[in-house]
Amino acid sequence: MNKAIRMFLNYLWQSILFWTFAMLLWAMFRFYGIESEEGITISADFRQGMQMKNILPLFALAGFLMGIFYATVEFAFERYNSKRRSIGLTIVIKTLIYLFFIILIATSMIELGTNLFGLQKNNDPGWWRHDKGFWITTLYILFTSLIFSFIRIANEKFGKGVFLKMLLGRYKKPQEEKRIFMFLDLKSSTAIAEALGHFKYSQLIQDCFYDLNDIVPKYAAEIYQYVGDEAVLSWPYHRGLANTNCVALFFAFQNVLKSRNSYYLDKYGLVPEFKAGLHGGKLMVAEVGVVKKELAFHGDVINTSARIQAECNKHNVTVLISEELKENLPVDSKYSTKSIGNLLLKGKKKELNVFTILQG
């Protein structure tokens, strides 16, 4: 199945589950026990239509539809919205789209409730403009969407499933994990920075990482950190090996940069090239900091990955991988490997057998 379709379906079920629960919760807040409140008079028709056995299915359906719509909008923006567009403008566009669909869904639910349960509620064109119940519900939906977006952003920042583990305090004590790391660095960065100047150079790095971010989700990667003109990417070990994700991402990034060569040549007078070093194994992960809390990885795997990447220029290759990681990669006819030999990496006492990877 296409990776984009898998990503959408994964996001879809999460969105449907979240919004169905959120709308059921709102139905409970709004209507449960309302007829028992002192000082509130409920008409017989309203009481009949607003029984929880009638209300809950309606709101569950509304949540289901919200989940489909929300997932579709977010996926479309993720795939097709320019990452270079300001966050503020993106929020305004999304809010207008949400408002339109909320009106559409609310109107449909009123019509359905009227036909099935005899709800007597005005749904003439423009009904929503002066309906206080609609606007308080809309405010709840917009606030809830912020919570959903926050959870999604936090999940993306820390990696799939990691945010929940942090909430539960799993990483308060260091935990051992097996991961793959890639250190991705701009080639000839010093010369490029001198030629372009710091402002243009900063724009170049920004453009390169925008292009990198476009493909990161397709290969199940997590961006651990950016350090100047270097990006550090990570995978849980099994996920990095699956479909040779850890290798495929590098060549996909190369292809993206080549496909945009006219853009880079026109703007910067060059096409950026990157080099990468890959290694995997066990290391420790722990929650660090208070003011700027984050997950930190500690262990030889990170140091070795960085040292492997540093050997790329010396051997005039763009990507190097440790023998240990290469042996665990599934056989893929799209790639071939060539031994560089046993290298004594900086700071190491033992030599490490390193390979370069070729496409085709």
UniProtKB/TrEMBL annotation:
PROSITE patterns: GUANYLATE_CYCLASE_2. One of its GO terms (biological process) is intracellular signal transduction. Residues 180-309 form the Guanylate cyclase domain. InterPro entries: A/G_cyclase, Nucleotide_cyclase. One of its GO terms (molecular function) is adenylate cyclase activity. The keyword Transport does not apply. The chain crosses the membrane at residues 12-34, 54-77, 89-113, 133-151. Keywords: Membrane, Transmembrane, Transmembrane helix. This is Adenylate/guanylate cyclase domain-containing protein. It comes from Ulvibacterium marinum.
